[in-house]
Write a structure and sequence with these properties.
This is Phosphofructokinase. It comes from Ancrocorticia populi. It is a single chain. The protein has 323 residues and is α/β, with parallel strands linked by helices. The chain has a domain of 128 residues: 3-Layer(aba) Sandwich (UDP-N-acetylmuramoyl-L-alanine:D-glutamate ligase). 39% of the residues lie in helices and 24% in strands. The chain contains 11 helices and 14 strands. A hairpin with a 2-residue loop joins strand 12 and strand 13. Helix 6 crosses helix 7. The radius of gyration is 19 Å and the shape is globular.
Length: 323
């Protein structure tokens, strides 16, 4: 079983404008699309479409529109009740750029937080894979992920984390002090890798753009020394780098028509977890993760690709060792 946890789920509204966005101007909408959202939910969609046994866990009030959308597509979920509504995130697309406007989410009570934590921990058993993804709804402690990682690893499950900003910085502090807080898997981008390891993420990404992966490699290996076995560093349209105990590889992203980048990182995570579940070696897992991300950007909104949509990109994805 692969379980995803989304502590700040959302309704993702994608609006395509008929002209470039101009502050203060009047715009007309060409396409208006609402999809289930939240990083863990996006990952679960990818897993489900690949035919894997998955369960998405999050909090939502009874009758929330998010639950109706998920029921329509048949995604297995387990929810914990709350009083407030799920937040709405808005993505504005025009011919020049993508603009994102994210709500913070409503503040959860102590009881509501305990309820969704229990829903997660009661679902996890030895040998399970657990992916903790996204921002934390207001009310959670900033160190929530480190706390959950300790409990999940104690059960004997394999656990990954994909987050940013304050929760990521809190996890970085915990990693420096206690290896028990280390997840098995982390999926930072270059900037986040810098935050985790005390480096300048912009310098790491700029060097990688020149074909110099030494800084990224060194930073990823630093995380391994702290107990993180698999580090997948996503580099946007350039591709991704993977560091495991077996080696370090880079995979360039195949060319793809960019329609929407929203959720592409979550699709890369799904691709990596699919490869792991299928017993692929590190280079193959990396190539599949990159192919899933490339397929995702060629689709509208936060649409998660089916395996047949990933296959053309996978044929072009080649992982190369990084010395």
């Amino acid at each position: 079983m692969i379980i995803t946890f989304t502590p700040n789920p959302s309704l993702d509204r994608t609006v395509t404008l008929n002209a470039p966005l101009a502050p203060g101007g009047v715009h007309r909408i060409e396409i208006d699309q609402i999809q289930p959202g939240g990083k863990g939910i996006n990952v679960a969609f990818g897993l489900q479409r690949a035919g894997l046994d998955t369960l998405a866990i999050f909090q939502a009030a009874q009758g929330d529109p998010l639950l109706d959308l998920l029921a329509e597509v048949g995604l297995p979920v387990r929810t914990s009740p709350i009083r407030g509504r799920v937040r709405t995130n808005i993505t504005l697309l025009d011919s020049n750029a993508t603009t994102k406007i994210n709500e913070p989410g409503e503040k959860l009570s102590v009881v509501e937080i305990a309820g969704v934590e229990a829903a997660l921990l009661n679902a996890v058993g030895p040998g399970d894979t657990v992916m903790l993804s996204g921002s934390l709804a207001p009310g959670f402690e900033v160190r929530e992920y480190a706390k959950l990682v300790r409990k999940i690893r104690h059960v004997g499950a394999w656990v990954g984390v994909d987050t940013s900003e304050a929760p990521l910085l809190a996890l970085a502090r915990e990693l420096r002090e206690d290896e028990a807080a280390a997840p098995n898997f982390l999926k930072p981008n270059a900037e986040e890798l810098g935050q985790l390891t005390g480096r300048d993420g912009r310098d790491l990404e700029a060097a990688a753009g020149r074909g110099d992966f030494a800084g990224l490699r060194e930073a990823a290996l630093d995380l391994q020394k702290r107990g993180v076995s698999d580090v997948l560093v996503t580099l946007g349209g350039a591709g991704a780098m993977l560091a495991t105990a077996e080696g370090v590889w880079f995979c360039q992203a195949p060319d793809a028509p960019v329609i929407s980048t929203v959720g592409a990182g979550d699709c890369s995570t799904a691709g990596y977890l699919i490869g792991r579940a299928q017993g692929m070696a590190g280079p193959e897992r990396l190539a599949l993760a990159v192919a899933y991300g490339s397929a995702a950007v060629s689709l509208p909104g936060t649409t998660t690709p089916h395996p047949n949509q990933v296959e053309p990109f996978l044929r072009l994805a080649r992982s190369q060792p990084v010395a």
